[in-house]
Amino acid sequence: MRATRLMSLALIAGVSFALPAHADQQQITPGTGLQSSVVIDTGPDGICNTTAALGDIQAASVGQGTPYRNEIRCGANKLVESTASGDDTQLVAVGSACSGVNKPVIDTGPNGIPDSTPAGDDVYAPGIVFGTPPSGTPCVIAGADGVAQTAAPVGDDVQDLAAGLASPSTAVVLCGPNGVADTTANNVDPLGDDVQVVAVGNACSPTDVVVDSGADGIAATRAEGPDLVLQVQKPVKLKIPSGSATGTKTVKVKVFNVEFGASAPVGRAFKLTANNGSCPGGTVTQLDADAFTVGLQATGSVFLNSSTKGTFVVTAHLEDVTSTSTKAPFRCTFNVSVVALDTAPDVDDADNPENNTTAVDLEITDKNDF
What we know:
This protein is mainly β. The chain is built from one helix and 20 strands.
């Protein structure tokens, strides 16, 4: 109704509206290089030996492997059967259903060393060997300016990006959903060496690079095209701190049992499910249906006319987020559902099953960009 009324008012005023369009997509903040560039990797033994110079980010602690690497994946039966050991992280509770084959269910934890053994038909991710950190993983990555500062690798660590340089010819602007290149290279710094890969006005696909960073690796271009920001109430806000590669937040959920009728049991067992929606893969993990019990619980229960609490974890990686302004956070949306075990995989058979699912707006700001 509201949209129809707005359109009618526009036509009365003699104004015509173009079909919906979307701006090109910014990948690197103007004035910086690619922040996720690997400056030093861990070399053949998988252990980081090099201390990051000021301005770079320590992706792996000295003496350890790169943390939180995918370690064990879900097998063909799409059921989590493996239990995390050591300091490994249980991403999906044992006994839970996986959203698909090969979904990560355990990562290597803070020390980056695989301490867990696959059970059932779960499998190791490629390159994973029990007790041995994967080789050639990030030890030091470029910091806020995207320019390498660390000059001398230690031990068998390998220099991937020389000090004083940014990764050349990396994507600065990608084609937007409207399928037309809108952005002119070097529109922020006319002296920049960004390269116009797709001419303005030409057709392109969503994954096509419209502008790259040129030989110096420093972005001199800001994405053009429609760019609107809609404010919503009470979004989940997450920050990637300056000097950090990730930002993490635990989000609480509340589950109510409002079942009606004389035949209603004293309680219902349930599980929590989630999808990544429009958020990058791996944003939503560690669903816990029972926040009152230590560890991740695949299922929980709630008494009739009562409530209980669960949690899940949202994680953002700086390589997935580009912030061009504090007023324009990276935003994505995902869904979280509570599913009665009696009706699974359907949410339930109540009059309004939509009440079982809520959309979560996630706003992410990468402080490395400012």
